[in-house]
Amino acid sequence: ERGHGPYQPHEPGYGLDQPEYSPYEDEIPDPQARMLAIKNAKAYLLKTSTKSGLNLYDHFANILTKILDEQPTNTVDIIEDISKDVKWAQFRKKMDTLRDEHLIPPTFQAAEKYKALFVKEGGGEEEEDLEEEMGQPSLPNVMETAFYFEQAGIGLNKDESYYIFLALKNLINVQPIQTCRFWGKILGLEMNYIIAEVQLQEGEEDEEIAEEGEEIVGEGEKEDEAEEDDEQKEKEAEPPKSTYKPPPEIPKEANGTGTNKYVYFVCNEPGNPWVKLPPVTPAQIVCARKIKKFFTGRLDAPVVSFPPFPGNEANYLRAQIARISAGTHVSPTGFYQFANEDEEEDEGADTYEENPEFEPPPVAEMVESLATWAHHVKGILKQGRCVWINPSQKSEENDEDEEEEEEEGEEQQEERGPPLLTLISEDEGMKDIPAWTAKASTDLIPKYSVAILQSNRWPGAYAFASGRKFENIYFGWGHKYSPENHTPELPPPAQAEFPSGPGITETVDPTVEDEMAFKAAQEEALAEAEEEEDEEGEDD
Amino acid sequence: MEVQSLPAALALVASGGTGLSPERRAALGASLPLVQRDYRFERVWFWGCIQGVRGTYYIAEGLGPDRAAPRSRLYSLNCLDWSLLTPATKEMLALAEQMKGRFQGDPSFDYSLSEINAEAAARLVESGKEPVMKEEGRLVATIELIDRAVGIVPRGAFVKTPLGAVHENRHFEGLPLAEAKKLSSYFHLTEPVNLKNKTLLEKADLDPSTDFLDSLEHDIPRGSWSIQLEKGGAVVVLRSLLWLGLTFYHVPMTKQFGYVYFGTGEKNLDLPFML
């Protein structure tokens, strides 16, 4: 740095250390040295930066010009920002002749999708005809429900609620639907799910049963082929056959009953096409109870877990929806009653109907006592179904193992869950946390307040009641609350090996001495045999 | 989130399903400016609410001129009467981390420490106090833990002046959409932990005025944030999976951003199993 000339008066070479020249004098005898110093300084300031192409001299000139033009207050405090602004201004000039591709942000595509929701369907005449033929499918008043839930602080953005309203209307127009309800929203990692609970009309459900019949026939054929192969192979020596018999598969409940009472449609965003979720099997529910996984938002994503979940994310979602519905769908006590007045413990107690003589209790009472609310969805048993079935009844195919299965049948006792319209005050809490929390939406205006129930077992499940109106909804991640940490299931114990027998038991190898002794004994016997024949044997 | 932008912000965060009822919103609009006047805060943020079994706590934070200084926290049960919480000490933080279970909703509820941490209980007994921890203490410690773990701001929203104080950046115009989708554009608004561990090459690219905080990229466990673009990119919403209920929103290319917590105040310790 000291290579270039003196810039400042105190540096040697400037000329001021000479006896006549002092830095405090205004006039410098020899102006040349000072001019040289000034030129050197300016040359240094004009040096162009290798990184940005700017130089300090021009930069300072621009800063001072800007400051003098704009005259901001407290300039010295914001001088660094001003310097940055000037630098940024320099960079704006693009000397490229290439133009940037006009990026279409995804915002516009989404806006188009939402706009499409607002299209009014069909002509007026067609609508009237349809309404006369079929019973009018009931579109739920999503906005009204959203209003009541909003009194408790629960719910989505009004815009989003309206989009969902329109999307449900589209769903009803497309699918043959009898009743429809907005079930709730489940959050996922990449995308969320909006879920509609639907009851299809009578004829549609039979189609699905026919499809399943075909699948079962296919499996039966495969089993026959396997048996033929086995018979051929029996001639060769085979390793011992495994005596493992997987536990009999518990059949899923028929559509329209139990866990499959409703059909669920999901979509990621209102405006996307609705996808129907497959019916749920008891095996899926049993497995879903043991795992805890976030939803990604894609229905075909695999669920990687232990125990391995039989299905992909669509099945896991359906299983969680079934569990949440069974655990948290409640209504004011007395709103629903049984169709026939027989004992509630019959297995046919799946149907209920509205009670026309229902008198809604006042909101204060609904908040005070949990006995004013009742479940209207049957709870799921440990087996994974709402109605217990004895798996050993299906032993027609395997004649050999009847004895074993009868023993197992005796061990499995019939499971009985709580009857259908149980009061929620009978729900057990966890440790010291009650299963439900009830509160009124407002204390200040009791006349118009709404009774709100929050579930503590399934955080995110809410219910409200106001007079004759009530509704359930779910907003959350789709998992049950457990006060303990989730412990994954341990792998099963190692399966028993084959029973010991002479064929597969290891014996100790004979030692060298034993072998030599055996060999010697053999040769002696041989030698004796040869001597008897009057021949002389030779030892090896 | 700021009090003035509360209605718009709540609308953007509502996709998680939880929000505030109109009564509470109106009460907040009336009471938070009074809090700002009484305590002479420069900024008051509505932090969110923690749902207890029997009641809900609504939390507000007050900030002074240096936004990185320890914040004052206030709680209320009805959004009208606010009480200041005493700042959390290290022991309170350590105890609160070990406590499990929901909040009760009663600020004077006593948690018996002998079940949770026998040593701390013994120490308290020796010093003559009862081995209990009040729910207020657990509340303030939980708020502090949540802020430290998942309180986030976009990159460039805050600047550090040469004197060390942290201010809002008046030149912040919002993140562009491409940047808003990346986890590295968001910072934790607490003391940085990972900054010193960066390589020299990375540090050379940092701008000391805006890059003085930890970014979300290296959060453990990986994948503990869920980024979603809503309305086709009109809003970026980040949800924390470690503290379920914390939602951060930002409208790209505008100055709107903020985070709020609506939840039960429990850490999601099952996160590694759930990913």
From TrEMBL, chain A:
InterPro entries: Radial_spoke. Residues 1-27, 202-255, 391-419, 485-509 are annotated as: Disordered. It comes from the Eukaryota. One of its GO terms (biological process) is axoneme assembly. The keyword Cytoplasm applies. Residues 202-231, 397-413 have a biased composition (Acidic residues). The keyword Coiled coil applies. Keywords: Cell projection, Cilium, Coiled coil, Cytoplasm, Cytoskeleton. Residues 512-539 form a coiled coil. CDD domains: DD_CrRSP4-like. One of its GO terms (cellular component) is radial spoke. It is found in: Cytoplasm, Cytoskeleton, Cilium axoneme. This is RSH4A protein. It comes from Tychaedon coryphoeus.
From TrEMBL, chain B:
It is found in: Cell projection, Kinocilium; Cytoplasm, Cytoskeleton, Flagellum axoneme. Keywords: Cell projection, Cilium, Cilium biogenesis/degradation, Cytoplasm, Cytoskeleton, Flagellum. InterPro entries: RSP9. It comes from the Eukaryota. GO terms for cellular component: axoneme; kinocilium. One of its GO terms (biological process) is cilium movement involved in cell motility. The keyword Cytoplasm applies. PANTHER family: MITOCHONDRIAL RIBOSOMAL PROTEIN S18, RADIAL SPOKE HEAD PROTEIN 9 HOMOLOG. Belongs to the flagellar radial spoke RSP9 family. This is Radial spoke head protein 9 homolog. It comes from Tychaedon coryphoeus. The gene is Rsph9.
